[in-house]
Amino acid sequence: MAFKNNCYTRSISTNNCKSEMTIEEFKQWLKQFDHDGDGRISKDELRDALKSVGGWFTTWKSWRGVKSADANGNGFIDDSEMKHLVSFAEKRFGVKIVMY
Asked: Where does the secretion signal sit in this chain (predicted)?
């Protein structure tokens, strides 16, 4: 997994412990949950990604994540909408996305 620390209790971040990754690492991490290989992330695929790091309320969080990031309203997050998911993940999942 692409997270740069070992702090994975029940969510991507806990108290003072934030996970950090680059945008490319974040995309690669999500890509492993693209079960149908269509290059897009569905609500169910995002839920599986959140479950993989021990997240709570994954159904609700994945629904909110897709709703927040899905600019064209097709129910999926494609590469052009990834910046919206990155922003959502930083605010709601406690992931720090860095540019190096």
From this structure: none
